[in-house]
Design a protein that fits this description.
Helix 14 crosses helix 15 and helix 21 packs across helix 23. The chain is built from 26 helices and ten strands. The strands form two sheets. A six-stranded mixed beta sheet has the order 3-2-1-4-5-6. The chain is globular. It is an alpha/beta fold. The protein has four domains: 179 residues, 2-Layer Sandwich (Nucleotidyltransferase, domain 5), CATH 3.30.420; 164 residues, no CATH class; 86 residues, 3-Layer(aba) Sandwich (Rossmann fold); 101 residues, no CATH class. 49% of the residues lie in helices and 9% in strands.
Length: 565
């Protein structure tokens, strides 16, 4: 079996832009004496997180003359397409980083078969003889030389030695351990998005610019929107369709004055690069309509000329009849323009309708006093934990869980991990459709149904008082900025991220039960279903309150660490 032992270090945990990679390629049975060794730095073309630098030691200065990943891939691709790729925590860390870089650079994604020594060790090494299953701990347990931890090539070599030892001691058949890699959802992949998402973003921008231009005037707020779009998408300037749009934006801003004619030129430029052919006209035009509606709201004002122009656009695209949100918006436009004059009350009504259509969860979200006797349906992913935990909470409150949205459903709860601004889930769509036909389904976010007895701030400061430490000592030990503590004190109902709350728990040396009490006050809970939660729970259970050591374990698993957003 031809195998490639593979490890990477990345500049940051958010995008996992690779800054160093190590490869050791060989025949597993030793039939071919040739061993390929690759130890190389890579220019990540991205920012470095100082915590990552502390772990692996690779800096922006050390990679400034290195090739980028796209160039490096051309010389190493053969070690992945004709071999089984082996690494430690390889699926969630190294291969996840690899696929993120494929998407970033537009590289055709190959099929990769892999074997994970972390999973293999958990199967073969009893938990009672070892403190954890990190590569360093396992190498120490088997007396394997491991000179440089968190150096990509050294890690790949250590992984090779570890696999040999595991096979020798167990006689396991490795063919049964090989898996096809299936990439995880990259919804949290912030700076670099997929080709399909980029096309959709361009369609939405076209619609938004159309919305800005409906009244033939461009104010400073609308100019700022275009400038911000240009700044956010500058990273994609290597793509011809994005580059030409960025250049046109630069051109129309050269003299500091943006005219209606120039906005029409920008629209024309974008239009030439829209992906109309591969989409149905229904999908394409709906994306444009949503963009137009958002464009109308950017300056927080709805004018008569905008409504007239919107009505014309709707008439010209009446094939959208029956497709959400066309029917509702055309009914609203006809209503406010019925007498030919747009009053302030009618403009406010139109603004409210558009806001509801472009932000359905935020607009329809209502405070609920009681779940008793209410039929509740769940949609999306929940920060509280698995859906079963949320269902139990609802049942404990006297609610009834509906598996699907029905006419009799009282409340649709959307998990806080679901990005409803980017797309409408099927259940959310169904609820809105029922409401448009006279239904009264309330739509709420997860955080609005999980009601802790005390606020997060109250519970946190109670633990701080019991610890004997000052507020400053706690946020410094948690590696938090002072502003975080100020927000918790001064901003009503402010809820930090789960990672930040766990950092406070570690700084306060809370037990697992106390950590769950603190998390529950913010609508979270530790769940063994999530790798991050398992690391936190295991560290606390073993009395390990060293934040940097915990961050290293999280880094090795390829997941966000304490104190990150």
């Amino acid at each position: 079996m031809k195998v490639t032992f593979f490890d990477v270090e990345y500049a940051n945990t958010r995008n996992k832009s690779i800054c160093q990679l190590g490869i050791l390629s060989r025949e597993l049975d030793g039939s071919d004496p040739e061993v390929v060794q690759i130890d190389i730095l890579v220019d990540p073309e991205d920012v470095f997180d100082e915590n990552c630098v502390r772990i692996h030691g690779v800096t922006a200065e050390s990679t400034k003359n290195a090739a980028n990943f796209k160039t490096v891939w051309q010389s190493i691709e053969k070690y992945f397409t004709n071999a089984v790729v082996i690494g430690h925590n390889i699926a969630s860390a190294d291969l996840d980083a690899l696929y993120k870089n494929f998407e970033r650079y537009g590289i055709e994604i190959p099929e990769i078969y892999y074997l994970c020594t972390y999973d293999l060790a958990r199967k073969l090494v009893p938990s009672y003889v070892i403190s954890d299953y990190s590569l360093g701990t396992l190498c120490n347990f088997f007396s394997i030389t491991y000179p440089r931890q968190h150096h990509a090539f050294s890690d790949a070599c250590a992984c090779s030695d570890l696999l040999d030892r595991l096979v020798k001691d167990s006689g396991i058949n490795l063919d049964d351990e090989v898996r096809l890699y299936v990439p995880e959802e990259t919804s949290d992949f912030i700076d670099y998005i997929t080709n399909a998402s980029l096309k959709k973003a361009l369609h939405s921008f076209y619609g938004t610019v159309t919305g800005l231009a409906l009244d033939s005037k461009i104010n400073e707020t609308e100019k700022d929107y275009i400038r911000n779009w240009r700044e956010n998408f500058a990273v994609y300037d290597s793509r011809p369709d994005i580059s030409v749009v960025l250049n046109m934006i630069d051109t129309i801003f050269e003299d500091g004055v943006v005219t209606a004619r120039e906005i029409n030129l920008l629209k024309s430029t974008i239009r030439q690069h829209l992906d109309i052919v591969s989409l149905s006209m229904i999908t394409f035009s709906t994306q444009l309509l949503n963009g137009i509606l958002k464009g109308m709201l950017i300056d927080d004002e709805i004018t008569e000329s905008e409504c007239l122009s919107l009505r014309t656009w709707l008439y010209n695209n009446n094939f959208l009849t029956g497709h959400y949100p066309f029917d509702k918006i055309i009914a609203a436009v006809e209503k406010v323009l019925e007498d030919g004059v747009l009053t302030k009350e009618e403009a406010d009504y139109m603004k409210a309708v558009i806001d509801e259509l472009t932000n359905p969860v935020e607009t329809l979200n209502q405070e609920m006093n009681s779940l008793k006797g209410k039929h509740v349906c769940l949609s999306g992913n929940f920060t509280f934990g698995e859906k079963s935990a949320v269902e139990k909470y609802i049942i404990d409150q006297g609610g009834i869980v509906d598996p699907n949205v029905q006419k009799t459903t009282d409340i649709l709860v959307v998990g806080d991990n679901q990005n409803t601004n980017s797309s409408y889930g099927a259940k959310l769509k169904k609820a809105i459709e029922y409401n448009e036909k006279g239904g009264a389904i309330r739509i709420s976010k997860e955080r609005d149904i999980i009601k802790p007895a005390r606020s997060f701030g109250e519970v946190l400061f109670d633990f701080i008082d019991k610890s004997g430490m000052t507020d400053a000592e706690v946020y410094k030990k948690a590696q938090m900025p002072r502003q975080m503590m100020s927000k918790i004190k001064c901003v009503p109902n402010y809820i930090p991220s789960k990672q930040n709350i766990c950092a406070f728990a570690i700084a306060l040396r809370l037990t697992v039960d106390e950590t769950n009490e603190l998390l529950a006050s913010a609508g979270y809970v530790l769940s063994r279903s999530f790798a991050f939660d398992r690391v936190i729970e295991d560290s606390i259970s073993r009395g390990n309150y060293d934040i940097f050591d915990i961050d290293i374990k999280l880094y090795e698993l390829g997941i966000s660490w304490l104190g990150t957003k």
